[in-house]
Write a structure and sequence with these properties.
single chain, 44% helix, alpha+beta, elongated
Length: 595
């Protein structure tokens, strides 16, 4: 009786530990406006993933009866599955249920330490440990030749698989495969039983993946705003390889921000790799064959994470996780990398709990829990979350919880008041830019090589002529007189790859030392444009048009190129957005029409 009371008390303490972060952390994914039946659009504030999502009705029922958030109840489900997994895998805690409840909280908290309060990741991984243990039980039953006589076990496993598909939704194929992998290679008790027959293996695979495949086929695609064909809403280089899904649905506009994912998860991936390698080196001799498989599999998964986040963008497209995401349904729409890092964090903590050395065990678990101190603060308090407060306007909340959130996040770095001045930017984006050369102005490029253009005699066409951009290149635009300027356009002409990669713009008198800083653009993405519904997006990269945060009075504009690229910077034409009444509008050009 005392042992049972201790176990119950330990369970309550562990449940309180894994649910406390749900109440303390800011969510990194929020609901958007679109609804279709039980599906609600889910917008990631960090990775710009935008897709339909539904809450598990089983979880929602029990969570509401206990007055808990759904994510809190899902963490308890993850805790129960982890408790069963550690019971089978770790000799330290196999005979002490109370202590096993307490240590089972460590892998669950490790997930939160590396991904934050992400409904997508928590929902994806909530049922996976329990599903892996149900599949493990079926493996043992079928190997013992009495699998057909335990029909209730098959029914329970199918129920858990259905709940996994209802909770993980589009990522349930990924978590179902992970559960099969864990059950088969990590927790197989013995090797001396008969091999599985094809029929039995197919039955197990159907239980694990059947409901997941059904969700992948039937899940609806969320309607996107009316972005034009040449729009993009996540950062691109403008000259890199394209990233397309080979299997499953694909949106007309890529919404998943892979560059942000790499920056966000790189520190955590490196820490998980270091811990997994340390466990592999220090625990190889005393580990059982199954524990060695776990250590090797965990280290391999951590290597895949680092390759996906550390390689240059073009090379990362052929990294293991990126390749897998193109082969899995919904892989290019939902952020499978976030599920992968949560799974690896869980595996590393489970592997640590089976280590023969108590010191290494404690050190590895501490590193897993303290991952929150080295990862990006955006995982626990997204900067865009502040704009979803009840005091924010409905229009701002609509724009933030949309596929344009990556555009907004990047523009807020240029202008912290971007959302406050969204109407100003919308108006200026459709304004008329005046040809500087026709108005009697001039422009220069340093360094420069003049190029001939028979179609436009007399107009200067310039190029840096060094076959690359190294930073420090300067374009100076001189207006006929001091004018109130709200933006500048610098066209590279027919050489579309010769646009500046980053810029710092200053304006004022023609003495650069007296000019004032106007705006810094890190990682040029294209001109800021708006759909007919008011959603911002980026146009094509070669269309270099910058809207200033506020109009500036100047006679000279200084545009310094601060990026690097294996292309020249070419200047074929310079235009300014000016309010001077004497400028001739015959030489102006409107912004591209929004749909």
């Amino acid at each position: 009786m005392i042992g049972m009371l201790r176990a119950v008390l330990a369970f309550l303490l562990a449940a309180a530990a894994v649910t406390a972060p749900v109440f303390m952390l800011a969510p990194v994914s929020v609901d958007a406006d679109a609804h279709v039946g039980p599906w609600t659009a889910l917008a990631s504030l960090n990775l710009n993933a935008f897709h339909f999502w539904r809450s598990d009705s089983f979880v929602r029922l029990f969570a509401s009866s206990l007055s808990l958030p759904a994510a809190a109840f899902q963490m308890v489900i993850m805790l129960c599955g982890t408790w069963l997994a550690i019971r089978q895998h770790s000799a330290h805690f196999a005979r002490t249920p109370a202590l096993r409840w307490l240590v089972s909280a460590v892998p669950c908290l490790a997930v939160l330490s590396f991904v934050g309060l992400d409904r997508f990741v928590i929902g994806s991984l909530a049922w996976m440990p329990l599903l892996s243990m149900m599949l493990f039980a079926l493996l043992n039953a079928t190997r013992a030749s009495y699998g057909a006589r335990v029909l209730p076990l098959w029914v329970m496993a199918l129920f858990v698989s259905v709940q996994n598909s209802a909770s993980a939704n589009q990522s349930s194929v990924c978590t179902g495969l992970g559960a099969l992998f864990i059950a088969r290679y990590f927790w197989e008790r013995s090797q001396d039983r008969r091999a599985l027959k094809v029929r039995e293996a197919l039955a197990l695979a159907t239980v694990a993946l059947g409901p997941a495949l059904w969700v992948a086929v039937t899940a609806p695609t969320v309607p996107l705003p009316a972005y034009p064909q040449d729009a993009h809403v996540v950062p691109e280089s403008g000259t890199s390889l394209l990233y397309h899904a080979l299997v499953g649905p694909a949106y007309p506009v890529l919404t998943l921000d892979r560059i942000a994912a790499a920056a966000l998860y790189m520190p955590g991936s490196a820490l998980l790799l270091a811990v997994s390698l340390a466990l592999l080196v220090t625990g190889g001799r005393g580990a059982t064959p199954n524990q060695k498989r776990l250590l090797l599999g965990t280290a391999a998964a951590a290597v895949c994470l680092v390759l996906d986040s550390a390689l240059p963008y073009d090379l990362s497209l052929i990294a293991p996780l990126a390749t897998l995401s193109r082969l899995l349904p919904w892989g290019t729409v939902v952020p499978l990398v976030s599920v992968a890092i949560g799974l690896v964090a869980w595996l590393v903590a489970v592997a640590a709990l089976s280590h023969s050395s108590r010191f290494v065990l404690a050190l590895a678990c501490t590193a897993s829990l303290l991952g929150s101190f080295i990862v990006s603060p955006e995982l626990f308090s997204p900067s865009l979350a502040a704009y979803l407060a009840p005091s924010a306007s409905a229009e701002v909340r609509r724009l933030v919880a949309s596929p344009s959130s990556s555009v907004i996040r990047n523009l807020l770095r240029q202008d912290p008041l971007f959302l406050d001045h969204i109407d100003y930017y919308h108006h200026k984006a459709s304004g008329h830019f005046h040809d500087l050369f026709r108005q009697g102005g001039s422009y220069s490029l340093a360094p420069s090589v003049p190029l001939r253009d028979p179609a436009q005699p007399g107009r200067p066409r310039l190029s840096t002529g060094i076959a690359r951009q190294v930073g420090g290149e300067l374009c100076t635009a001189k207006l006929p007189k001091e004018t109130l300027v709200s933006g500048v356009e610098i066209s590279p002409g027919r050489n579309w790859g010769d646009f500046p990669r980053s810029m710092t713009i200053s304006a004022g008198p023609c003495d650069r030392a007296s000019a004032k800083h106007v705006v810094t653009v890190d990682g040029w993405q294209g001109p800021l444009l708006f759909t007919s519904d008011g959603f911002p997006y980026w146009g094509r990269h070669h269309f270099v048009r910058v809207i200033f945060p506020q109009p500036v009075s100047a006679q000279c504009l200084f545009v310094e190129q601060t990026g690097t690229a294996p292309y020249d910077w070419s200047v074929d034409q310079v235009k300014v957005l000016s309010t001077h009444p004497q400028l001739d509008t015959a030489g102006s050009s409107p912004a591209p029409a929004t749909p």
